[in-house]
């Protein structure tokens, strides 16, 4: 099957052509499935995603975010601000 664009050089290939008019690649030298995806920079079949994550993001896994102590103090202050008027009304 003739591709619309040559996978090697990117030139337009006429329909039914046996080879690329620019670089001369054909089904045996450059129109195979491997040649059409070589220039994309896709990972290999043996790509290890877990190793990639460790290398890029660090070795320790990210846990849930911790709530800092001052947020607990702010929450307590807000609750007291609403509860004290209710208690004093009685």
Structure notes:
The protein has 90 residues and is an all-alpha fold. The chain is 40% helix and 0% strand. The chain contains three helices and no strands. It has helices at residues 33-38, 49-57, 69-89. The longest helix has 21 residues, at 69-89.
Strand tally: 0
Per DSSP, what share of the residues sits in E-state strands of 2 or more residues?
A: under 5%
Binned, the helix content reads 40-55%
List the quaternary state of the chains: single chain
Mean pLDDT, as a whole number?
79
Radius of gyration of CA atoms, rounded to a whole number: 32 Å
Q: Structural class given helices, strands, pairing? A: mainly alpha
End-to-end C-alpha gap = 87 Å
SSE series: HHH
The largest β sheet comes out as: none
Task: Identify the overall geometry.
Answer: rod-shaped
Number of helices: 3
Low-confidence runs of at least 5 consecutive residues: none
């Amino acid at each position: 099957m003739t591709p619309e664009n040559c996978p090697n050089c990117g030139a337009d290939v006429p329909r039914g052509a046996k080879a690329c008019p620019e670089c001369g690649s054909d089904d045996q030298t450059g129109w195979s499935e491997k040649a059409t995806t070589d220039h994309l920079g896709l990972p290999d079949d043996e790509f290890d995603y877990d190793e990639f994550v460790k290398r890029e993001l660090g070795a320790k896994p990210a846990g849930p975010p911790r709530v800092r102590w001052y947020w607990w103090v702010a929450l307590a202050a807000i609750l007291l601000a609403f509860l004290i008027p209710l208690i004093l009304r009685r």
